[in-house]
Amino acid sequence: MKKNLLTIGLIASASLANAQNLNQPPVMGWSSWNTFDVHISEELINGQADAMVAQGLKDAGYNYINIDDGYFGLRDDEGNLMTHPFRFPNGLRGIVDHVHSLGLKAGIYSDAGSNTCGSGQGTDDKWGMGVGLFGHEKMDCEFFFNDLGFDFIKVDFCGGQALLDRAKTDLDERQRYTSISNSLKATGKEVSFNVCRWAYPGTWIHDVADSWRTTGDIWCDWTSVRDILAENLYLSAYSSYGHYNDMDMLEVGRNMSEIEDRTHFGMWCIMNSPLLIGCDMRTIPAPALELMKNKELIALNQDRLGEQAYVAAKIGDCFVLVRDIEQAQSGIRAVAIYNPSDDAAHVILPLETIDLAGKTAIRDLFDHKDLKAITNGNLVCDVPAHGTMIYRLEAEKRLERKVYEAETAFISDYQELENPYARFSGFYEYKPFASSGILAVNLGRTEENDLCWKRIYSKEGGEYTAIIYLSSKEDRNFTVEVNGKKAARLTGNSSAWDRIVPVETKVILKPGLNEIRLYNAGERMPNIDKLEIIKL
Fold first, then answer.
1. Which CATH class is domain 310-398?
2. CATH architecture of 403-535
3. Where in the chain is the domain with CATH 2.60.40.1180?
4. Active-site residue, selected from the candidate residues 217, 221, 317, 364
5. Between 159 and which of 132, 247, 421, 535 could a Cys-Cys bridge form, CB atoms 3.0 to 4.6 Å apart?
6. How far apart are CA 227 and CA 191, in angstroms?
7. Which one is catalytic: 124, 140, 156, 248?
8. How many other CB atoms sit within 10 Å of the CB of residue 510?
9. What is 28-265's CATH topology?
10. 15-35 pLDDT, tens per residue?
11. Does 235 or 8 have the greater pLDDT score?
12. Residue 217 known to be catalytic
């Protein structure tokens, strides 16, 4: 073997049944790509690891140093990966050892196809050709995790798509990522597995990976952050403890305004995205460093309940997102009031909209300040353009949730890789006349193209009125199912696609969590705006 093979060194394999289903909070750390592209080196990676410790970021919870594209040096005649002869002449084992010596974890990068994004798109064409996992994944997984001791892998898809791959290869995402997942498990190592397909791949991904990208690549601009948030506002049902929607690396500390940085970081925290710093940690501006070390915001991201904040309401241009923290169904909740518009907003939020009542303590998590308790039932705040306010609320009373927006429900066949009309799969669409600005549309025709609210809570159980708000220009039928049993067959017709009307039925809920599912296995369903549940 050549001197700079990735396989320099050997560590013992741990006997673990699962390679990547770690059931842990979202990953926190640093990744090389945003700032350095393929222009990385042993010195740079080790320097970033040192900076993570020196800047206090390790103490704040960041612990992954992830090497992205740019370290490859082709393969030898036996198919073994080699490192770049100038950037990494000593291989990677020494870097992993240095990272581990600091009490940190080490991450690596590859592609599901034959070529990486750096090579496939021409920025590093010579060194990244043929180095992807396709055809080599068992060998490479052994190298990465048993020989080198890495703890994390991000797997791209540039080499699996003819549009981006120089070899013009088209591969099936589900087959490739499932196969890679199985190869990771076969190593017997604990490995955090991140899928990077630039869109929500489909509900199958929950059985394959620990986190998955839901959008195209981020870049250091407010419009990029805004557009990524717009997509993830309707993905809360697809995130759970140990399995997270990844909104891509952080651009905090680069070129956006302090207000935009605050929104970027705060929303990544409350929506449970992995927190991977993308700037040069040696030279982080003081405000950005303080923000990224904000332990109260980080606590939201790492909360043991693992919920992604969901859309509870839209007030003017502002979205209200809320989630339980610390204890489920208690009076302690985190709320974000997010203003994506170019104008400042004055917001009056009734506490009952987020299921709270009574005297309520309020803490500003950006500025670490306890504010005057809420006694009149309304949270009032001013939100700057592109800004966000995030609060921890502790109320005397927790109310049963009445309103379940359609964008907080789960579509069993949901995916973003294929045209949903050609695939007959439902999706979420922004509509100004919807109660929170989003409808669930294109539902029905198959059993899996349904709409399901999986966490409808009733303290005591009993009889409720279920009101489904919908739009349809024609009669469209659907079945209401409660906890796996058919409850009603309803017909919806609002006479216009831009008009919402209610259709109601009676349902019986059990104490605790319930599921209400709407479906039509043979015909199209109406578009759904929200579900309202009222105790009789």
1. mainly beta
2. Sandwich (2.60)
3. 310-398
4. 217
5. 132
6. 30
7. 156
8. 12
9. TIM Barrel (3.20.20)
10. 233 334 567 999 999 999 999
11. 235
12. yes
